[in-house]
Amino acid sequence: MGWTQTIDNGLGVLLVLLTARFFRCIIQQDDDTLQVFGLCFVGTVIAINLCSWTAGVLGVAISKWRDRDDLPKECRNPLGTAVAIKKWKDQSWQLCIHVSMSAYEFYLLHDNTWWQDPMSMYDPCPPEQVHSPALRNFYLIQLAIWMWTAFSCKWLEERRKDYLEMMAHHVITVALVSNSYVENQHRFGMLILVVHDLSDVFLDVMKMANYLKIEGPSGLFATEIAFVVNTYVSWPFLRFYKFITLIYTVAIPYKALCPHAAQDGGATMLCMLLCLHIHWWMILQRIALKILKGGDPSQAGDEEYEVVEQKKTK
């Protein structure tokens, strides 16, 4: 057994343990949390499968429509392989999740100052905070999504070249979200989720444009534009600036303002996520360099990130 397989198995075991810990905690609560979470989880799985099926139908239709003589040969029938259509469907349901959760997050934030002034989320300290049913239900939906996403990443989705990094990201996020729920740190956890969900919308759009090969003059440079917006606007602002700001609030001021609140190593796990953000951003820089050297955007993405394609079906 190689070291990669050992790490993969370890992440799988850790995911199971985190899930079991969360269930043990909510079972001990004398309320309807377990039932609500169960409904959220079932609803999440149904919604994801519905989105995936719909995306598959639309993807095949779009791919056939793009199988035209007026397009460059390499851009025709872009979803004509089993791997390509599977990647398209996986990315489509993730886009639906990220858009819907971003909308929910903006709804929760519209009458609060937590996003503009992160320190305000510690007034009062987490142990004394009383959360609205909307925020509590949002958290349970997010936990259901992240647990399913981690399960899907390990056992259902096509494995990309950064599979281990992605799986580690999912496991760390499940740990952060479940811990913050148990320790009543819903406000802070929601801001971390906003950073991820909103930035992932731009990432999803970029990937889906790439899968459809909407690039170059024939595609009005849609993939290239999405790449620039994701890599040099969304990612630096959300995954670096806002994320580092949140790490600072939990690493230093939070401990001073709320010395008796739980300190569970959240800052350490957030720093681990930041390292992964930097790693992925560097991959984007390598893709950008290949494009600047005249390389094909889709091929550059495949070489640095994606799974190996199969031959197109006739």
Number of helical segments with 4 or more residues: 10
Radius of gyration: 21 Å
Gap between N and C termini: 38 Å
Q: Which structural category do the helix and sheet elements fall into?
A: mainly alpha
Helix content range = over 70%
List the helices and strands in order.
HHHHHHHHHH
Principal-axes shape call:
globular
Largest sheet: none
Low-confidence stretches: 308-314
Mean pLDDT: 90
- The percent range for strand residues is under 5%
**How many beta-strand runs?**
0
Structure, explained:
- This protein is mainly α and about 325 residues long.
- Helix content is about 70%, strand content about 0%.
- The chain has ten helices and no strands.
- Helix 1 packs parallel to helix 5 (about 165-180), helix 2 (about 35-65) crosses helix 4 and helix 9 packs across helix 10 (about 295-305).
- The radius of gyration is 21 Å and the shape is globular.
- Mean pLDDT is about 90; it is low at about 310-314.
In short:
By secondary structure, the protein is mainly α. 72% of the residues lie in helices and 0% in strands.
Task: Give a quick set of tags describing it.
314 residues, mainly alpha, 10 helices, globular, disordered C terminus
